[in-house]
Design brief:
By secondary structure, the protein is mainly beta. The chain is built from 4 helices and 15 strands. The strands form 4 sheets. The protein has a 5-stranded mixed beta sheet. Strands 9-14-11-10 form a 4-stranded mixed beta sheet, covered by helices on one side. Strand 5 and strand 6 form a beta hairpin. It starts with 20 loop residues before the first strand and ends with a strand. InterPro entries: Sec_acc_SLAP, SLAP_dom. This is Accessory Sec system S-layer assembly protein.
């Protein structure tokens, strides 16, 4: 239930959507090949409220949805849009209420697709949703729905998600776009050409991350002369959006399967571009080693974020 209804008194002035609106071309999102557009590209389309036929909501709640819908800006012809209504957080979930809007002159049904939860110039997370649950959306209409993101769907803690600047957006996959290597300037300058080629060959030999997924792949691990453990990791971004990592907790296991190092790293907005992989070094001081270095077997190893 929207928090508007938790207030003792509600005036129209108090009712307003907090999320942004993000529209895409219907042809980019839906399989509409062979269907001619009936819309005038210059026309402004105002969408009518459509409540899911299985919903049985109080009259007051329908009034609020109708009021908010009437406040929305018009769409262009043949667009599908997500217009954020409200975002509510608890310890386990982020619940986003939004209008799914269509300016198409025909009834549509959206299938399984990936949605991004976005803030100001950053992606908070992503999740694949079965949007057939939204139902058949009538022509030129707007249907409210709720989208739930859990911590595993997010790139940062729930507590860090802003509720004042947010939105939902469709993630459109570009066809035939290869996953590429993205080297930081310091790596570009210091890494030998043969080592760059080895990284590219490695990238071509491993399974790329799923759409929207962040994946860590170990490159190399070694002890430095000062006894510190250095692990080199390929950070893979399967999203179509650039992401910035502010911090990354890591656990390292050796060939025995035992945890040999654990710690958190401040990355100061390390950016991994859309659909790329970036190598990065993480150095564990001896104080973060959980096993005597002489007993650590690095013939096989893996690094991963600790499970919550």
């Amino acid at each position: 239930m929207l928090s508007f209804f938790k207030r003792k008194k509600t005036n129209d002035e108090d009712i307003k959507s907090t999320g942004s609106e993000n529209a895409v071309s219907a042809k980019d999102l839906l399989n509409l090949e062979g269907v001619e557009s009936e819309g005038d590209p210059e026309e402004e389309v105002y969408t009518e409220l459509s409540i899911h036929p299985d919903w049985n909501i109080p009259q007051e709640q329908e009034y609020v949805f109708r009021f908010l819908n009437n406040e929305l800006s018009p769409l262009k012809a043949d667009e599908i849009s997500l217009s954020g209504i409200e975002i509510v957080k608890n310890e386990r979930q982020v619940v986003c209420s939004a209008f799914v809007r269509s300016s198409i002159n025909q009834t549509i049904e959206i299938g399984t697709t990936t949605l991004l939860l976005i803030g100001e110039n950053e992606v908070y997370g992503r999740k694949e949703f079965d949007l057939t649950k939204v139902g058949h959306i009538p022509p030129r209409s707007s249907r409210p729905f709720q989208f739930v993101f859990e911590q595993k769907d997010l790139y940062k803690p729930i507590s860090a998600i802003e509720t004042e600047i947010w939105g939902l957006a469709f993630q459109l996959q570009s066809e035939n776009q290869d996953h590429t290597l993205d080297l930081a300037e310091s790596w570009e300058k210091t890494l030998a050409d043969e080592d760059k080629e080895k990284l590219r060959n490695m990238l071509g030999s491993i399974t790329p991350p799923k759409p929207g997924e962040i994946q860590l792949v170990g490159i190399q691990s070694k002890f430095m002369d000062n006894g510190k453990l250095q692990v080199s990791i390929l950070i893979q971004n399967g999203s179509q959006q650039n992401i910035k990592l502010q911090q990354l907790p890591l656990v390292v296991e050796d060939a025995s399967g035992e945890v040999v190092a654990q710690g958190g790293f401040v990355l100061e907005d390390l950016e991994i571009k859309a659909n790329t992989s970036k190598p990065w070094n993480f150095v564990f001081p001896t104080s973060l080693l959980t096993k005597d270095p002489s007993e650590i077997d690095l013939s096989q190893w893996r690094a991963y974020p600790p499970q919550e």
